[in-house]
Amino acid sequence: MSTEKIGWIGLGNMGIPMVKNLLKANYEVTVFNRTKEKEQELINLGAKSGANPQELIQNCDVVFTMLTNDDAVKEVFLSETGLLSKPETGKLIINMSTISPETSKFLAEISNKHQIEFLDAPVSGSVKPAQDGALIILVGGSTKNYERARPLLDILGKLSLLLGEIGVGSSAKLAINYFLALNIQGLAETVLFAEKNGVSRENMLTIVNEGACGNGITNIKTPSLLSNQYPAAFPLKLLHKDLNLAKEEGLNTPLFHPLFESFKQAKDNGLGEEDVMAIIKSL
Ligand code: NAP
Fold it and tell me: Which residue positions are annotated as catalytic (predicted)?
């Protein structure tokens, strides 16, 4: 354990369980969330509350951001009481939100102008791995900052990989979420095709999961497919956001375009707040 004081901004589906793990490991954690009520559960567990991002970085050594998208992260960094509103020599910001590699590079550059260090560290894995401290953390940045962050990353994840410069972590995240979307779409299409030809959903999922095509995703999504209920673990609108970022990064493969349109249509049809597996409802 290091003695660094931790700040955490963004208490959504992912942020809350991740902070719980830092508290369990006896770190001093100060949280900030735009909707203040969401802080209460963590305050009850021993977290402190900060008035704004500026106060957090003044009082903490390392500040994590786990926010919806590029715009949210930029707002938290750049607003009047944002993380970069004053120079804070020697502090480290670790962004774990999924954002574009360009935004990661931009944030690193302006952080450094404020004498603040920056790591690009998005995560692979959803709410359950976040609860279990079993995320895979995809890091871009300097070896020095990575080594400083390691004791904390080791609590949040089962594996962290330093992949290259700032932005490379975000690129890896967009690539793995493309593969996730292919899996989700493929599973939904397979189940529907089988059902149409007289194979029950339950039997088809057994065939998938017991064979070489079964994987973590097919297993995790099986209960929701059987109950036809899709409470959000990873909301469909966030996967659509990530496919959009991948498109902006130049992903232009034969399967990408229909896949992107499928998730766009599902989101436009009002399925954005449901889990990614709800794609089956729009097929
Ligand atoms: P979420 O539940 O929607 O939470 C988003 C957080 O961002 C909330 O704390 C929200 O504050 C805050 N926020 C949004 N806009 C803001 C703004 N303009 N200013 C300040 N705060 C703002 O999202 P999540 O599921 O935790 O995901 C967080 C990030 O991790 C996303 O980039 C997502 O793509 C990525 N991710 C998610 C999963 C997953 O399974 N959910 C897995 C891997 C990666 P309020 O509470 O005030 O709305």
Answer: 173
**0.90 exceeded by pTM:** yes
Query: Which CATH number does the domain 172-282 belong to among 1.10.1040.10, 2.40.440.10, 1.20.210.10, 3.40.109.10?
Result: 1.10.1040.10
The reply to whether 173 belongs to the active site is yes
- Say which of 20, 91, 173, 237 is annotated catalytic: 173
> Of 36, 68, 77, 94, which is best to mutate to test ligand 1, by the most ligand atoms within 8 angstroms of its C-beta?
68
Asked if residues 29 and 22 have their Cβ atoms less than 8 Å apart, the reply is: yes
Residue with the smallest CA separation from ligand 1 atom 31 is: 68
- Token pair listed for 9: 């901004």
Q: Residue 55 and residue 32: Cα distance in Å, rounded?
A: 9
Distance CA 69, CA 272 (A): 15
pLDDT tens-digit readout, 44-89: 999 999 999 999 999 999 999 999 999 999 999 999 999 999 989 9
CB-based contact 32:63 (threshold 8 Å)? no
Nearest protein Cα to ligand 1, atom 19 = 72
What does the block give as tokens for 162?
A: 């330093």
Residues having CB within 6 Å of any atom of ligand 1: 10-15, 33-35, 38, 66-69, 72, 75-76, 97-98, 123, 126-127, 233-234, 238
Position of tokens 């480290």? Answer: 92
Check: CB of residue 74 under 8 Å from CB of residue 100.
no
Write out pLDDT tens, residues 114-151: 999 999 999 999 999 999 999 999 999 999 999 999 99
User: Distance from the CA of 115 to the center of ligand 1, in angstroms?
Assistant: 26
**E runs forming strands in 122-156:** 123-124, 135-140
